[in-house]
Amino acid sequence: MSAETKMVTEGLIDFKREGEIFHTFYKLFGTLEKRTRNPLIVLHGGPGLCHNYLVEFAQLAEKYAIPVIVYDQLGNGKSTHLKEKPPTFWNIDLFIDELVNLLNHFGIQDSFDIAGHSWGGILASEFEVRRQPAGLKHLIITSSLAASSLWNQSNGILLQAFPDGVKQGIMGGMKDPEKFSLALKEFHAVHGCTIRPVPDYYWQTLDEVFGPNGDPTVAAAPYVYFYYLAHCSPLC
Q1: d(CA 77, CA 38)
Q2: What is the DSSP letter of 42?
Q3: What is the DSSP secondary structure assignment for residue 214, as one 8-state letter?
Q4: Kindly report the CA angle at 201 between 120 and 144, in degrees rounded to 5?
Q5: 60 domain-assigned
Q6: Residue 156 CB: number of other CB atoms within 10 A?
Q7: What is the pLDDT of residues 167-206, one digit of tens each?
């Protein structure tokens, strides 16, 4: 393994929105200099989670010299938190604009790949449909929604094997974040991560939202989450 592929850099990117400047936290595995492969941008799930659980994508940089960029979407993780913003602030175009800003910051907008996980797959799909970026060479969708009706149906079937407390916690959603968090961890311990023991960074991702110091602002924003559960397009 070369020293070049071991490189990890992180930082904050200025993101201007409605006359204000916010910051997007990123982590780059590998290097963008003298690259021979398209950089891969990885979009995390949620809405409201962060990049932590996606660090395994770094193996692509180590093994295949593919530069990998993960980042925390606005309002999450180490990016700017905006608890005072109204629900209307959190919309799909906000997160698409943030993605475009990240691509432009690194100067890779002419040739790049995207991998979107869960909600990140929705974001990636809408980015492609709404902006039709010429520089997007490959789009990878993983564990995302094919249709909201199927998503709800599948989760309902999986929940049947769990105790009533887990079912109630999941179905109650963000109305009771503490119960939802406990139920979600029970659910994810079976269907979210098959590695044993479950890595700390996986639980850390959920704690960024539901932990003692977590911020559920984005996760609870109806204009992003609930709209796409009800109206997810066929490409999602």
Answers
A1: 26
A2: E
A3: -
A4: 20
A5: yes
A6: 12
A7: 999 888 777 878 888 898 899 889 888 888 888 888 888 8
